[in-house]
Amino acid sequence: xxxxxxxxxxFQGQLVSDILRLEQQAYANVExxxxxxxxxIRHKKVLILLDDVNHINQFKALAADVSWFGRGSRINITTxxxxxxxxxxxxxxxxxALLEESHALELFCMHAFRDKLPRPDLAEEALxxxxxxxxxxxxxxxxxxxxxxxxxxxRICGITQ
Length: 161
What we know:
GO terms for molecular function: ADP binding. This protein is mainly alpha-helical. Residues about 1-5 and about 155-160 have low confidence and may be disordered. Helix 2 packs parallel to helix 3 and helix 5 (about 100-115) runs parallel beside helix 7. The radius of gyration is 20 Å and the shape is elongated. The longest helix is centred in the last third of the chain and has 24 residues, at about 135-160. Strands 1-2 form a two-stranded parallel sheet. The protein is built from 7 helices and 2 strands, in the order ααβαβαααα. Helices cover about 55% and strands about 5% of the residues.
């Protein structure tokens, strides 16, 4: 979720910017961002989606308490770290099942080949990719995007040489 040093502050700024429809502000530290969230958004009814949370500090910096937001607000969190849900004040927990292998393969093939089935010459590789990605939908799409970009860059490099 966060790839660089100022990740949490940047995400706090983006969250405030998106909710209040203002230009994104930079915060000196995470605590300043938390204070802004609590003060500026506490009367706004919001729906916040936090995807791929992998550390409790991410949650604490962005949406630790529904009281930071207006009445009726909802915070949805996706995580692969089961232990984190014990640390959140979770009202409802929904476990998402992995895609069946055949459905995962179909999703990958639709994204990669624009067809439900892999090309015969790539069937084995497509199945390997499905297994490598753990049959996670986003991972299947991102994996293909990465492969496609590598292929395009390779062609561009080949043309320029």
